[in-house]
Amino acid sequence: MSKEISAFENAKRQIDNVSVLLSNDYSDKTKFAKALKLLKVPQRFLAKKLKVKLSNGKTKTFQVYRSQHNDARGPFKGGIRFHPNVSEDEVKALSTWMSIKCAVTGIPYGGGKGGIIIDPNDYKPADLKKICKAYAEFLAPHIGPWKDVPAPDVNTGGREMAWMLEAYEAKVGYHAPATFTGKPLELGGSLGREEATGQGGFYILEAYSKKKNLKPLKTTVAVQGFGNVGYWFAKLASRAKYKVVAVSDSSGGIYNSTGLDIENLAKLKEKFGSFSNIPKTKGIKLITNSELLELKVDFLVPAALENAIKKDNVKNIQAKVILEMANGPTTPEAEEHLIKKGVDILPDVLCNAGGVTVSYFEWVQNLHGYRWTWVRVNEELKKMMLLAFEDIYKRVKDKKIAYRKSAYSLAIKRIIDAMILRGRV
Questions:
Q1: Angle of helix 354-368 relative to helix 196-211, nearest 10 degrees?
Q2: Which domains are assigned to the chain?
């Protein structure tokens, strides 16, 4: 994200970018224009300064947010992040992108996003619990299984969701596990959630490779980022015999032209803390993150930070395909350059939608009071990811447009159609 353009301005610009493509689908241009206008503003935006008495007896104030973007297709859905850089602008943008992501995969949700301006490392677990409780109580009138279903995001996980669920249920007076997803298994969390995002991305890798007749053994992959998403993607690709030649964490990367042993690397990373600390051994060559991005590979998989591929390095990108597993890893300027070069960019709103898809399955399981097996979760995930890919691929071919444009136009059409059917416009 450049300093001149905010994340939310960027999200609105992306909506405008596909409006021309969609215009011919609507005979009533006034309704269409009104729907587009509504899509560029969250339906509800909640903000408050919450006062929390900490375990040291002092009271501290925290700025908290929840953006509820559009619920024409179903309840709002989206994570809660704890980070010093959380802002109104970021939360509004992320809730907009969640609406798009849910519509791309056909999940019956609208987008939501929440956040607290906080560095959780500065607080004891007992105090984080109090902060979670205060936030859940603040949200209570505005969330619920059929209203808004929050989930973990940056610096939050099953622990925080458990605390928030407890506070919410105490407030409303009954069990409502479907109000939060990403919960511990013991409280109604879903099997398969841990690997869901990486697994979903792997299904897209497989689907695209099949369309292009790529043979895994001859297909090279470089993965930037070795957190949960990057690790699972690399592991699954490697297991399917794709040649994963490079992976990296924030300290740097590991490269081997004949392919890496992902399981062994995970153990080494755990033992030494980071890739840069791994002793030099045969078959392991240390490279920088910049060098990884510029490798001549079939698939480059940015699975770490936003804006990894940008104006400064785009001319050095040699990959044939970018498969986005991070949120917003390619800037609009870089994307323009790569598309002109003939590079396919499989967008984040499709590739990393496995996480929200399995969150949806968790919600379904909670509402039914019935747990699915791990096999069923993955079969259903595969079905939804492949269906979404087929819809996008067909649009790419029919309209001769790039994958992101195809995904966005498809998603925005689905949201606008729902708004028109409801009589909102």
A1: 120
A2: 43-187 (3.40.50.10860), 190-425 (3.40.50.720)
